[in-house]
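Final report, closing paragraph on structural work. Over the funding period we assembled a curated collection of sequence-structure pairs, and we close with a single example.
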Amino acid sequence: MHEMSLAENVLQIIEDTAHKQGYTRVKTVWLEIGQLACVEQASMRFCFDLVMRDSIAHEARLEITDTAGQGRCAQCSIEMPIAALYEACPKCGSYEIQVTGGDEMRVKELEVE
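Its predicted structure, as stored:
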């Protein structure tokens, strides 16, 4: 379950930012998770709650925003939305699709005190 290490990384980002900006409590965390990021949202929510215990983000609400997958065909150069890795190009049928978006996860915003 790599969501546990992802949640730990989110906590590290929160703590580093808190140190730099001087806040003492996080009320809400907005994560942006790409459709192709291979992150199970239910597992992420569970791990987030565990990791945030006894931290400045204890009892913080987790809001997740989905971002669509995007790709570009190496053969015919069209850009397209993609829902899964290794899909064929709808125009030429090639499987040489380069992912151009939707494969990342990032902390988008924090509500702090």
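The chain is about 25% helix and 35% strand. The radius of gyration is 17 Å. We thank the funder for supporting this effort.
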